[in-house]
Design brief:
The structure holds two protein chains of two kinds. Chain A is of the alpha/beta class. Chain A is 19% helix and 37% strand. Chain A is globular, with a radius of gyration of 17 Å. Chain B has one domain: Alpha-Beta Barrel (TIM Barrel). The chains are: A alpha/beta, B alpha/beta. At the A-B interface, loops of A face strand 5, strand 6 and helix 7 of B.
C-alpha cells in the first residue's frame, strides 16, 4: 500500500455530473496507485480538510477522479475551482476494499455519493470476477443520480432506485439488494452510502460471508492521530472504537456494531 | 538564514527549537511520520494517558466552527502500560523531546501514571492535563480550582524529579491564580492553554452536534484567549510558560514569545497542513531577523509591562 503524501494535483477537468454534483479528474501518478475505497483529504478554506473517495483510478493515464455533492462551504468552494488550477490533496488514505473473489457473484451497492467508490471498485476488478456482476444504485431523485452510464458501459445488470420513483424502481437500494441476496446465497457485496443505509445493508446481508462497507464519519486529521472519526466495532475483548480514516473506511460488515 | 540558533529551554528541558506538537493532535508520533520529519521538531507531546484504558466519547467527536474546531474526543487512550510498551519506544527513537501528557479522574490516578513512567528513561517531561473532571469533586475539573490543581501537582511532584509541566485550562476567571498555585506546589513550567469550552448545534438533527454534547474549542479562534492567558500568567509566576492555542505561523510563535512564553505547541493547524510545524521552523529565522533579534530567546516577554 502506498504511503500518504501531500500532493498539489492539477485539475485536468471539472464536470457537473448531476444537480449539485461535480467530478474532477486530477493528474497524479501517485494517487492513481491507490485502492478503491481509499480517499483523499482535500484542502479547502477553513480549519479542516474534506474527505472524498476516489471515483476512478486510471493507472495508465496517471489520473484519478473524485466526485462530490455540494452540501456546504467546502464542497461549494471545490466546485468553483477551474480546470488547470491545483488542489492540495492528502492521500491516499485509509484501507480500501479487498480484491473480490473470482468465483462469487458480486453486488455493488451505492447510495447517493456512495456510488463513486463502488464504481472505482468495479473499474479495478471487473476482470477479476468471473461470476455475474450486479450494481444497485440509489438516489433521492433522478437528477441526483451519478455514474449510471459509467456502470451501464461496463455491466448489463444495473438496477436503479429513486426515493420518488422518478427513475427506476421507487424506494431504496434495499429492495433490489434483498432480491439479489435471495438468489445469490454465496455472493459478495461491496456497499457505500449513508450510514443508515449501510446499517440496513448489513441487516439484509446477514449470513453473507463477504460484505464490505465503506463508512463515513466526521474527521479531524484523516491520519489516525486524533481519534475523531470512530465507529463501534467488535474487538477481541468486547466492543471497541475503530478509526474510519485509518482502520477503515472499508470494514467487513461482521466487524461493526450498529 | 541557515545556521540560526533556534534553541530554547523550558526550565531544564532544552529544545532544538521552540515548536512542539500539541497533545492529542499528533497521536503517539508514528501517525504523521510519513509526512513530518519528527527529528526536526522541538518536541512531541503524546496524547493524554491514564492508568487504565479510557474509552472516550461517542461520535461525532469533532465539529468545524468559524476559524476553529470543537472536539469531544473524551481522552480515549489505551492506558499507560500499553503506551509504555507499544508507543513510547517509537517516540524515544524519534530524535526529539518527548513530553508525556498525563490524565486522571483522581489524584491517585495521576500518580499511578507518573509512577509507571518513572521506569522509562525516554520521558523528557511530564505534562499534567488538569482539565479532567475530578470525580471526587462532582466532576469539577482539577484545573478549575487552585486548591485541587495544587493538590494534584504536589502529589505528582512528590514521586518524580522529572520536569513537571502543568497544562492550564482557560475556562476559569483567573488562570494566573491556578498558575501560582501549581508553581508553589512544585511545577517546573505551565502550558497554556487547553481548549475553550464550547458547543455547536446540528441544525439537521436539532441537537448538540457533538456526541459529548459540549466540547473544547481550538484553532485560530482561541489565539487571542491564549495570548491573554500567557501574558497574565507570565506576570504572576517565575516558571517558564509553553504557549499554545491557534498557532499557525512563525509570526504567531513570535507573538506568544513576546507575551511571555519560552516555547510553543501547535495542535489543530497540523490537521489542515501537516507540514505546519516544519514550515514554522523554516520561517522562524527570517521572522526573527525582521524583528531585529538573532535568537527566539531575545523575544521572550518583550511585550510584558516594564519591558516595553
Ligand atoms: C471517508 C469519506 C469519504 C467520503 N467520500 C465522499 C465522496 O466521494 N463524495 C461526496 O460527495 N462526499 C463524500 N464524503 C462526505 C464529504 O466529506 C462531506 O460531504 C464534506 O466533507 C462536506 O464538506 P462541506 O464543507 O461542503 O460541508 P459542511 O457541512 O459545511 O462541513 C462541515 C464539516 O463537517 C464535515 N462533514 C460534513 N458532512 C460530512 C460527512 N457526510 N462525512 C464526513 N464529514 C462530513 C466536513 O468535512 C467539515 O469538517 C466522504 C466522507 C468520508 C468520511
Ligand atoms: C482533537 C484534539 C485532542 C486533544 N487532546 C488533548 C489531550 O489528550 N491532552 C491535552 O492536554 N490536550 C489535548 N488537546 C488540546 C491541545 O493540546 C491544545 O491545547 C489545544 O488544541 C489548543 O491548541 P491549538 O489551537 O493549536 O489546537 C486536544 C485538542 C484537540 C483538537
Ligand atoms: S480523523 Fe483523526 S483519527 Fe481519524
Amino acid at each position: 500500500m502506498i504511503r500518504p503524501l501531500i500532493i498539489k494535483a492539477t485539475i485536468h477537468s471539472i464536470t457537473a455530473v448531476a444537480t449539485g454534483h461535480f467530478e474532477v479528474r486530477l493528474d497524479s501518478r501517485e494517487l492513481a496507485a491507490a485502492i478503491p475505497g481509499q480517499f483523499v483529504h482535500v484542502r479547502t478554506p477553513g480549519t479542516l480538510r474534506r474527505p472524498i473517495s476516489f471515483s476512478r483510478l486510471d493507472r495508465a493515464q496517471g489520473r484519478v477522479g473524485i466526485l462530490w455533492q455540494v452540501v456546504g462551504a467546502g464542497t461549494r468552494w471545490l466546485s468553483e475551482q477551474p480546470a488547470g488550477s491545483q488542489l492540495d490533496v492528502l492521500g491516499p488514505l485509509g484501507h480500501g476494499f479487498p480484491a473480490p473473489q473470482a468465483d462469487r457473484p458480486w453486488c455493488l451497492v451505492g447510495g447517493g455519493v456512495g456510488i463513486p467508490p463502488v464504481f472505482a471498485a468495479l473499474e479495478a476488478w471487473q476482470d477479476v470476477v468471473q461470476a455475474p456482476i450486479t450494481a444497485v444504485l440509489g438516489a433521492r431523485r433522478e437528477d441526483l443520480l451519478t455514474m449510471g452510464d459509467d456502470f451501464r458501459d461496463r455491466i448489463d445488470d444495473v438496477r436503479i432506485t429513486t426515493d420518488d420513483g422518478s427513475r427506476g424502481g421507487r424506494g431504496t437500494v434495499l429492495g433490489p439488494l434483498a432480491h439479489w441476496r435471495a438468489q445469490n446465497p454465496n455472493g459478495q457485496v461491496y456497499a457505500c452510502g449513508p450510514t443508515a443505509m449501510l446499517a440496513q445493508v448489513a441487516q439484509v446481508c446477514q449470513g453473507v460471508e463477504h460484505v464490505y462497507l465503506a463508512l463515513e464519519q466526521r474527521m479531524g486529521c484523516g491520519m489516525g492521530a486524533c481519534l475523531a472519526c470512530v465507529v463501534l466495532a467488535q474487538g477481541k475483548h468486547g466492543p471497541e472504537w475503530r478509526r474510519v480514516c485509518h482502520d477503515g473506511p472499508v470494514f467487513a460488515a461482521e466487524e461493526l456494531i450498529w | 538564514m541557515k545556521g540560526v540558533n533556534l534553541e530554547v529551554a523550558v526550565g531544564a528541558v532544552r529544545l532544538a527549537n521552540p515548536v512542539m506538537a500539541a497533545s492529542g493532535t499528533f497521536g503517539f508520533g508514528p501517525e504523521y511520520a510519513d509526512l513530518v520529519n519528527l527529528s526536526r521538531l522541538g518536541g512531541i507531546a503524546a496524547k493524554g494517558v491514564s492508568p487504565d484504558p479510557w474509552p472516550g466519547n461517542p461520535p461525532p467527536r469533532v465539529w468545524e466552527t468559524e476559524s476553529g474546531l470543537l472536539n469531544s474526543i473524551g481522552l480515549q487512550n489505551p492506558g499507560v502500560e500499553v503506551f509504555c510498551r507499544e508507543d513510547l519506544p517509537f517516540l524515544a527513537a524519534a530524535g526529539t523531546r518527548v513530553v508525556v501528557n498525563v490524565i486522571g479522574h483522581t489524584v491517585d490516578e495521576y500518580c499511578r501514571v507518573v509512577e509507571r513512567l518513572e521506569a522509562e528513561s525516554a520521558v523528557d517531561a511530564i505534562e499534567l492535563n488538569i482539565s479532567c473532571p475530578n470525580i471526587k469533586e462532582g466532576g469539577l475539573t482539577f484545573g478549575q480550582d487552585p486548591i485541587h490543581a495544587a493538590e494534584v501537582t504536589a502529589a505528582v511532584r512528590a514521586i518524580t524529579r522529572r520536569p513537571l509541566w502543568v497544562k492550564l485550562s482557560p475556562n476559569v476567571a483567573e488562570p494566573e491564580r491556578i498558575a501560582e498555585a501549581v508553581a508553589t506546589a512544585g511545577a517546573d513550567a505551565v502550558t497554556a492553554i487547553n481548549t475553550v469550552l464550547g458547543m455547536a448545534i446540528d441544525l439537521k438533527r436539532r441537537r448538540p452536534a457533538l456526541g459529548g454534547l459540549s466540547g473544547g474549542l481550538s484553532g485560530p479562534a482561541i489565539k487571542p484567549i491564549a495570548l491573554r492567558v500567557v501574558y497574565q500568567v507570565a506576570q504572576a509566576v517565575d516558571i517558564p510558560i509553553v504557549g499554545i492555542g491557534g498557532i499557525r505561523t512563525a509570526e504567531d510563535v513570535a507573538e506568544f514569545l513576546m507575551a511571555g512564553a519560552s516555547a510553543v505547541m501547535v495542535g489543530t493547524a497540523t490537521f489542515a497542513d501537516p507540514t505546519t510545524m516544519e514550515r514554522i521552523i523554516d520561517d522562524l529565522p527570517e521572522c526573527l531577523e525582521r524583528l531585529g533579534v538573532t535568537t527566539p530567546i531575545e523575544l521572550i516577554g518583550q511585550a510584558l509591562p516594564g519591558r516595553l
